[in-house]
Write a structure and sequence with these properties.
The structure is a homodimer.
Chain A lengths: L3 H7 L1 E4 L7 E4 L1 H4 L2 H14 L7 E5 L2 H13 L3 E6 L7 E7 L4 E7 L8 E9 L3 H12 L3 E11 L13 E7 L3
Parallel strand pairs in A: 3-4, 3-7, 7-8, 8-9
Antiparallel strand pairs in A: 1-2, 4-6, 5-6
Helix pairs in contact in A: 3-4
């Protein structure tokens, strides 16, 4: 990834968000920069050019912006993974731990492609809690998790731990917190 | 739009969501259907082929999935319009009325392109409250609102009222509630 230096330049870093001591890696500045956004989508397509992917699961809500163009380009289904209570149909849900308390995500049962290889997409992976919950949802719905793609990875948070043999690809990694 | 009958067939209709008496038009079934999703994006690009659009503002969060491929295709900036508290940088915010109470949305001030023509994108327009608030945000940030695109319009809710001379385009309209 010879151009990753420019991706780093396109990512806005905001100190003390959402709380003091946390450096927030903001991808809205990537989206507002057409060259940077194009670079991400092209690199994502390139990263899976030799992997069979049958569908894409997009994690609410920044995952949607990267997953949608990828799904369109490959001509495969796009599945939205949303916070509890936002999907109107019959869902499968999973809880996951937050720093304080827990959260719950869900997917429409009818949208999970049985026996198909699904790529999970989000903008950033830190501890990997949301991604693990998404993986659990998809498996319970009968799909196979082919991999995880996130634009940014915070490597010091050991996100690859607990994801078993699911391959995780990122375009850029930072030490994190 | 000779194929709009097939778009109707691709939209899942769920009665009594989010509350009794409301028929919910669900676009997750469109996204899970590659032909239907492709149809929407192609129709959207076609709809603005003779209009100058300099940037796209995507309304959280279903608007993200339609706005992102459009922005990429045109090679123009994508601006995320989010619920209050989710954007880490300096923002401009606007409140709007809900059936009970009010909500607030915001945009990064730095991402609003001054003097440029911005298209507002969402999946569905009903009363138009969120869209009007988005339009106010963009104008306060120094941009011009070139138009509004939503896949679905609920025409009985008079969403064109109060939007002044901002042109609204949809791919399909239903009577609504």
């Amino acid at each position: 990834m010879t151009s990753s230096f420019s991706l780093d330049g396109a990512i806005r870093k905001i100190p003390d968000f959402p709380k003091k001591g946390i450096l927030f890696y903001d991808i809205t500045s990537v989206l507002a920069n057409p060259d940077a956004f194009r670079f991400c989508i092209d690199a994502m397509i390139q990263a899976y050019s030799n992997t069979r992917i049958d569908a894409v699961a997009a994690v609410e809500s920044r995952g949607f912006v990267f997953a949608a163009p990828f799904a369109l380009k490959l001509g495969i289904p796009l599945i939205l993974v949303r916070k509890k209570g936002k999907l109107p149909g019959k869902t499968i849900s999973a809880k996951y731990a937050l720093e304080y308390g827990e959260a719950e995500i869900e997917v429409h049962e009818a949208d999970v492609p049985k026996g198909k290889r699904v790529l999970i997409v989000d903008d950033l992976i830190a501890t990997g809690g949301t991604i693990r919950a998404t993986s659990e949802l998809l498996k319970r719905g009968g799909a196979e998790v082919a991999g995880v793609f996130c634009v940014i990875g915070l490597s010091s948070l050991n996100f690859r731990k607990d994801l078993g043999d699911i391959p995780v690809k990122t375009l850029i990694e930072y030490e994190g917190e």
